[in-house]
UniProtKB/TrEMBL annotation:
Name this protein carries in UniProt: ABC transporter ATP-binding protein
Regions that span the bilayer: 32-62, 74-93, 99-120, 166-184, 190-209, 297-315
Keyword presence, Metal-binding: no
Limits of the ABC transmembrane type-1 domain: 34-330
This protein's GO CC annotations: plasma membrane
Subcellular locations according to the entry: Cell membrane
Length: 613
């Protein structure tokens, strides 16, 4: 379990980064963004026209529309142009029509926003997953899987919510602009003064509360922690129960959830307080304006009516705009974080060439390979040189932690050496296309992962086109056939999370069979039979050796009995090869191998070398 990304200090996230995040959303589907803004402008205009209808209505009511002036004149001209009588009934019908269009456009804006929102969320998820699959193995060592899960599942949802809010803010701003414009036409100075007061208040009230970004950032971090503890508890449920970790995890989970709860309450409290403060101030401003409009601006009755109506509509919208700005600020950390996460993931891609591999690979060679894990604190391999040819069996033995499995990982290209090179038929492997190289190498690891799918799916992961006969043959050699009848649905049995329905030895046998199904040239067996009894282990090894296909086999073993017939055995200690030769040569040399062999011979059968494995 890792405590994912070191949470960046929210203050360190500049406005430029926030704007960059928003710009990226716009650039994702520019035509949608333009459509949303264009429709929002229309909504604002329709709102303004709808409001302006108050003028002709009052004028017609007052003097029957005798000799209209100003804005009323515009309406009269528009009606004349359309050939519609300028009567109260038609004017009211006009308002109805304009408002119907306005609200229909509002629905369209919301619809387009939903498309942008859901589409962008999908885009973030797909991109993150793609980038994760292409990332270096070391990325997962360094960051664990929690961050990825949280980013793909949770952060993307919050990030896309910011988009909906930004669209609402754009629309509301344009509607406010329409009201402001009409009010400005009627009483310019009064409106200018009101605008200054309202906007200043908006800023002051924002500073009275913690920034939305700050609270949002705390919520985002708390979310990551919740996800991380949740995963630790579920993924390691057996160890949790066996080691009695429940209370420790419960405490950690509560602490994470509490942090999330506190930040959420704080956010909602501030949101509500801000909204109410805004509304109070807006109402107070409106009543102040009624007085000023009548006394100072000496507006006509119709003008005053429109002005006040505009103010009544404008004030709550301005306050909702203020609230929206707070919410957007609150959601932006998720957008900024998800983008940063994606950029980091993309920057961590495996770096491979595009050359094809000439199959079959005849010879794989390590020359002066030195390596250390980025998450470790030292050199794991030093000056490792060896070669394995097609048809050969090369073995590595040595104490736990000597670096044997690391050789397997480097051979499969899961990590890159820091020094020296690994080549196949003289070509450094990193020049190959990654897919082609990994098709040539089949690794059976110490703890192979089985997918929660059918046995058949698991057997053919490396070769989806394998025929039934190939699968059956691999199962026979790896002794999967022996327990096939015990599985309720044979090849179609779903194996459960990480093959939970199988014993450790059965899982290993499935892993060996799937490596054999893979049409590879190099097979790496890393303690691949450690959980089988010696008899079964010998049978599996003999079966692999009897195969018609000529693999280069690299075997890693603690049990020396499985490597005595290897063409070359390399003894590793502390990251270096300290002895090499055949079993007979090494026993004769009376070096480290001879001592280890003698020690194993003295122990009861099944004795192993070293502690781990
Ligand atoms: N992903 C990793 N990040 C950091 N250090 C690692 C990682 N994997 C292995 N190591 C370290 O590298 C060293 C060599 O590990 P490796 O698994 O290659 O040894 P091994 O000889 O295969 O051991 P064993 O026989 O126990 O499997 C060990 O000290 C181990 O702690």
């Amino acid at each position: 379990m890792t405590d994912s990304t070191p949470p960046e200090d929210h203050d360190a996230v500049s406005n430029r980064e926030k704007l960059a995040a928003i710009r990226e959303v716009i650039e994702y589907r520019p035509s949608l963004a333009v459509g949303i803004v264009a429709l929002s402008v229309l909504v604002g205009a329709m709102e303004g026209i709808g409001l302006g209808f108050i003028l002709p209505i009052v004028t017609v009511l007052q003097d029957g529309g005798g000799d209209p002036s100003g804005a009323t004149r515009l309406f009269l001209d528009a009606y004349a142009l359309l050939g519609i009588p300028f009567t109260l009934e038609y004017i009211v019908a006009g308002v109805g029509g304009v408002l119907a269009v306005r609200y229909a456009l509002g629905v369209c804006v919301a619809w387009l926003a939903a498309i942008l929102n859901a589409g962008y969320r999908r885009h973030l998820r797909v991109e993150s997953y793609d980038a994760a699959l292409d990332a270096r193995t070391a990325y997962f060592d360094e960051h664990g899987s929690d961050e990825l899960l949280n980013a793909v599942l949770t952060q993307t949802s919050y990030a896309s919510r910011a988009i909906t809010r930004i669209v609402r803010a754009v629309k509301t701003t344009l509607v406010c602009a329409a009201y402001g414009f009409i009010a400005f036409l009627l009483a310019p100075r009064l409106m200018a003064a009101t605008g200054v007061v309202l906007i200043s208040f908006m800023f002051v009230s924002r500073y009275a509360f913690e920034s939305g970004y700050g609270v949002g950032d705390r919520i985002a971090r708390a979310n990551e922690r919740v996800q991380s503890v949740l995963q630790a508890g579920i993924q390691g449920i057996r160890e949790v129960k066996l080691f009695g970790l429940e209370s420790e995890l419960r405490a950690e989970f509560r602490e994470a959830v509490d942090r999330h709860t506190r930040a959420s309450i704080r956010k909602q409290r501030d949101q509500t307080a801000l909204a109410n403060l805004n509304q109070f101030f807006a109402a107070a401003t409106v009543f102040g304006l009624i007085y000023l409009g009548a006394r100072v601006a000496s507006l006509s009755l119709a003008g005053l009516g429109v002005f006040l109506f505009a103010m009544f509509r404008l004030a709550p919208r301005l306050s909702s705009l203020n609230g929206l700005a707070y919410d957007i600020d609150n959601d932006l950390p998720h957008l900024v974080r998800t983008r940063a996460f994606l950029a980091r993931l993309r920057g961590d891609r495996e770096d491979w060439g595009d050359e094809s591999v000439d199959s079959p690979v005849e010879r794989v060679e390590f020359r002066g390979v030195g390596f250390g894990y980025s998450t470790g604190d030292g050199t794991v391999l030093r000056d490792v040189s060896f070669a394995v040819e097609r048809g050969e069996f090369v073995a590595f033995v040595g104490p736990s932690g000597a670096g044997k499995s690391t050789i397997a990982s480097l051979l499969a290209g899961l990590y890159r050496p820091n020094e020296g090179d690994i080549s196949a038929d003289g070509v450094p492997i990193e020049r190959f296309s990654v897919d082609e190289w990994r098709d040539r190498v089949a690794v059976v690891g110490q703890t192979p992962h089985l997918f929660n799918e059918t046995l058949r799916y698991n057997l053919t992961v490396g070769n989806r086109d394998a025929s039934d006969a190939t699968v059956a043959e691999a199962c026979r050699i790896a002794r999967v056939t022996e327990f096939l009848d015990d599985l309720p649905d044979g090849y179609d049995t779903v194996l459960g999370d990480d093959g939970v329905r199988l014993s450790g030895g059965q899982r290993q046998r499935v892993a060996i069979a799937r490596a054999l199904v893979t049409d590879a040239d190099v097979v790496v067996l890393d303690e691949a039979t450690s959980e089988l009894d010696s008899h079964l282990e010998a049978e599996v090894h003999a079966g692999i050796e009897r195969l018609d296909r000529d693999y280069a086999v690299v075997g890693i073993a603690h049990r020396l009995s499985t490597v005595t017939d290897a063409d070359a055995i390399h003894v590793m200690e502390d990251g270096a090869i300290v002895e090499s030769g055949t079993h007979a040569e090494l026993v004769t040399d009376e070096g480290a191998y001879a001592d280890l062999y003698a020690a194993q011979m003295e122990q009861p059968s099944g004795a192993t070398l070293g502690a781990g494995g």
